[in-house]
């Protein structure tokens, strides 16, 4: 089951005691030599649902120090409940908080600038993911809405409808693509992607995809890559490619169930945790040959893979791993493009999204 679904369908039995911490990681490694130009990496930790313990970890490449709860250290208050997405745009960091139902906007040092609440009256919209296009931010939410935010004023300026429980969003070919998961209608998941015209901000069509569509990303090749989770039974999850010129699924990649994926040029990296064998895997898919191989080459094991990203400047791959109890601090592993581990550091509870500050 995907990490997000664990947070939604499994109740936490314990509340972890959490304190801001700074830890020195891998002191023998010169991170400057493997991460040129990057000052730090931020990790959004989901925390445990309804425990209000999401955190933002900052790992400083200059001294190899990880500050587990960087947001609190910078602002004197906690981040909120169930961090779900994070991205940089226009010199600001946008953090989507699902249960708290707002977007937290900070500067690049993590200092809070504004909190944008996303409610329909008093009902939380439950925002999921964010995308950007021409000074606008677009946030899809579980209440079937897509909210448009002006990135200059940081105010909501319009709202439109997508399908059932949107769970991912991206921009390609001048259009918005929104994955309609139906995730709150278990076991009757949805299986469409909404296409929204940006100029009119209205849905123009839907694309039928594998059940329970999740993350969407646009690649350097102009294509859209979509991860569906299936129904955790008779329908397997898989990665798919969508052509935004025709709005049709052009490729479905076999044996590609995943919890998260990342793109870097002609390569797609994806990680998964297989509950049937209780083991994680990390694969790299060549988008030219459509062949996938194991990525890790040095025998490093990932306890419970939950997120993955690539530093485009170095090609280094970062894999986040939750703790086995889902309430203890997790770990982020950094691998060279060759699949060999470079270093690791402690993050917060259920680490997920990662961004680089340069």
Provide a descriptive summary of the structure in words:
The chain is mainly β. It has a domain of 149 residues: Beta Barrel (Lipocalin), CATH 2.40.128. The chain contains three helices and 31 strands. The longest helix has 7 residues. It is globular and about 50 Å long. It starts with a helix and ends with a strand. The relative contact order is 0.15.
Q: So what's the oligomer here? A: single chain
CATH fold topology of the domain at 1-36 and 60-71 and 258-358: Lipocalin
Flag low-confidence runs. Answer: 1-21, 26-36
Structural class: mainly beta
Biggest β-sheet, characterized? 5 strands, antiparallel
Radius of gyration: 19 Å
| CATH top-level class of the domain at 1-36 and 60-71 and 258-358 | Mainly Beta
Entry keywords:
358 residues, 3 helices, mainly beta, disordered N terminus, five-stranded antiparallel sheet, Lipocalin, single chain, globular, four-stranded antiparallel sheet
List the helices and strands and how they pair.
Elements: H1 3-9, E1 22-24, H2 31-34, E2 40-45, E3 55-60, E4 65-67, H3 70-75, E5 83-89, E6 92-97, E7 102-106, E8 112-117, E9 119-120, E10 123-124, E11 127-133, E12 136-141, E13 145-150, E14 155-161, E15 166-172, E16 175-180, E17 192-197, E18 202-208, E19 213-218, E20 224-228, E21 238-243, E22 248-253, E23 260-264, E24 267-274, E25 279-286, E26 291-294, E27 305-310, E28 317-321, E29 329-335, E30 341-349, E31 351-357
Antiparallel strand pairs: 1-4, 2-3, 2-31, 3-4, 5-6, 6-7, 7-8, 9-10, 11-12, 12-13, 13-14, 15-16, 16-17, 17-18, 19-20, 20-21, 21-22, 23-24, 24-25, 25-26, 27-28, 28-29, 29-30
């Amino acid at each position: 089951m995907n990490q997000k679904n664990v947070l939604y369908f499994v109740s936490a039995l314990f509340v972890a005691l959490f304190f801001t911490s700074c830890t020195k990681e891998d002191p023998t490694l010169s991170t400057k030599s493997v991460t040129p130009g990057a000052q730090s990496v931020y990790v959004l930790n989901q925390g445990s649902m309804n425990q209000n313990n999401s955190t933002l970890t900052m790992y400083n490449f200059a001294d190899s120090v990880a500050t587990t709860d960087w947001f609190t250290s910078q602002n004197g208050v906690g981040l909120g409940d169930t961090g779900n997405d994070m991205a940089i745009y226009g010199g600001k960091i946008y953090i989507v908080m699902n249960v708290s139902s707002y977007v937290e906007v900070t500067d690049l040092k993590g200092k809070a600038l504004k909190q944008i609440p996303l409610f329909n009256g008093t009902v939380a919209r439950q925002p999921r993911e964010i995308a950007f296009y021409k000074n606008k931010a677009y946030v899809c939410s579980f209440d079937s809405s897509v909210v448009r935010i002006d990135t200059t004023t940081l105010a909501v300026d319009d709202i439109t409808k997508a399908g059932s429980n949107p769970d991912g969003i991206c921009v390609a070919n001048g259009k918005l693509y929104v994955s309609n998961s139906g995730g709150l209608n278990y076991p009757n998941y949805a299986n469409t992607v909404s296409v929204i015209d940006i100029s009119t901000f209205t849905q123009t069509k839907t694309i039928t995809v594998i059940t329970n569509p999740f993350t969407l990303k646009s690649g350097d090749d102009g294509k859209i890559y979509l991860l569906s989770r299936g129904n955790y039974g008779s329908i397997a999850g898989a990665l798919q490619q969508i052509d935004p010129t025709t709005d049709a699924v052009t490729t479905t990649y076999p044996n590609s169930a995943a919890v998260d994926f990342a793109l870097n040029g002609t390569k797609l990296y994806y990680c998964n945790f297989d509950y049937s064998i209780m083991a994680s895997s990390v694969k790299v898919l060549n988008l030219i040959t459509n062949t996938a191989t194991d990525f890790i080459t040095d025998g490093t094991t990932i306890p419970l893979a939950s997120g993955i990203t690539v530093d485009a400047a170095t090609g280094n791959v970062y894999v986040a791993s939750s703790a086995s109890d889902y309430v203890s601090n997790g770990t982020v592993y950094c691998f060279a493009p060759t699949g060999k581990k470079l270093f690791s550091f402690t993050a917060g509870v259920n680490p997920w999204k990662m961004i680089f500050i340069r």
